[in-house]
Amino acid sequence: MTVVAKGNNAPDSRTAKVIQLYASPPSSASPSDAGRRRHPSQQRSEPVQPRRMAPRPVPRVSDLGHPNTDGFDETADITPINADVAPRIDESGLPVQRTGSPLFSLGGIRSAVADTVVTSAGYLRERLTGDYEIDDFGFDRHFTENVFLPAMRVLFDKWFRVEVTGVENLPTEGGALLVSNHAGSIPVDALMLSVAVHDHHPRQRFLRMLAADLALESPFIGALSRRTGSTLACTADAERLLRSGELTAVWPEGFKGVGKLYRDRYKLQRFGRGGFVTTALRTAVPIIPVSIVGSEEIYPMLSDLKPLARVLGLPYIPVTPTFPLLGPLGLVPLPAKWHIHFGKPIETNRYDEQAAEDPMVVFDLTDHVREEIQQTLYRMLSRRGSVYFG
């Protein structure tokens, strides 16, 4: 997601540079880059050295294929994305519908709320000792693990009944850039994705989210977002997180995705200018396509009060079946059944850092990632059961 940030919004009052397609001119290559191959367009620009062996061909984006979607055809039989999402077959040969915890399971909700209260009480006792740390971005691991995540699990497990697949595609260590579709009128998908990564990853890794300046500038939401791992979606912060080995998430559709109408559900919007690809190329981290089904139905956006939104300085004001008709009650999300799938990683270390300056490489990789997510969404939707009672 590409946003413009003022310098005083970045941590430590340092100037935050916006993620852009075109970066500063490349500097001279360092000795560590000598063994890394460049894009063919960059090789042609270099003088031909006599008595030099021809370089091996650099893998093209078209050669990567679509590991999550190859062979997909809307009219063909559905092939599972992987074994984890394959339909289970009962003794009669019919597929068994996957379900999470039953909807409106009051006993389960009471148990989850009680666990949250107990965890929060323990957090307060530990907080008084002062034995916790806050990093340079404002991330408070102690608060996130003991207050934020337990509260989100009530929605994750009992309300949205989220099914998670493809966790094996997340690296056990080191940085990776998670790129996801965005929807839901309110970015609840970012919160659910952070729970999915932490609770389902074997090492319970934390997700660091790149957020819009509008969210971080809000009085209460901004402080909470930074404390739970979010930071400004700018080049400096994104590269610093990835180089330090963090799992970092970005939503390239931005407000166009989260604020689209219900009739356009699960149709990906533009992925900006490919700033996330430039960042991944510079840091040589894999790109993990993430596909989320269920977020489009929690606040079905029927219309947009654009004149009022412009007056209030907001990107949109949604009109849903329950909001603003039911007032504050309309802010309660509908209990859609969710499915989050982590796709196979798209490696970027096959290119050197200079590839980030090549518009063709950036455009091709951006389109490749977008197509992976879009086609995976189609496959997930084709196997979907009931939206709210599945």
UniProtKB/TrEMBL annotation:
Top-level taxon in the UniProt lineage: Bacteria
Which positions fall inside the Phospholipid/glycerol acyltransferase domain?
176-295
Segments of this protein annotated with the region Disordered = 1-76
- CDD domains xrefs: LPLAT_MGAT-like
Protein name (database record): Lysophospholipid acyltransferase family protein
PANTHER family the UniProt entry points to: MONOACYLGLYCEROL_DIACYLGLYCEROL O-ACYLTRANSFERASE, TRANSMEMBRANE PROTEIN 68
Q: Write out the biased-composition intervals (Low complexity).
A: 23-33
- Gene Ontology MF terms: acyltransferase activity
Any Pfam family the entry gives: Acyltransferase
Which InterPro entries does UniProt cross-reference here? Answer: Plipid/glycerol_acylTrfase
Q: Which UniProt keywords apply?
A: Acyltransferase, Transferase
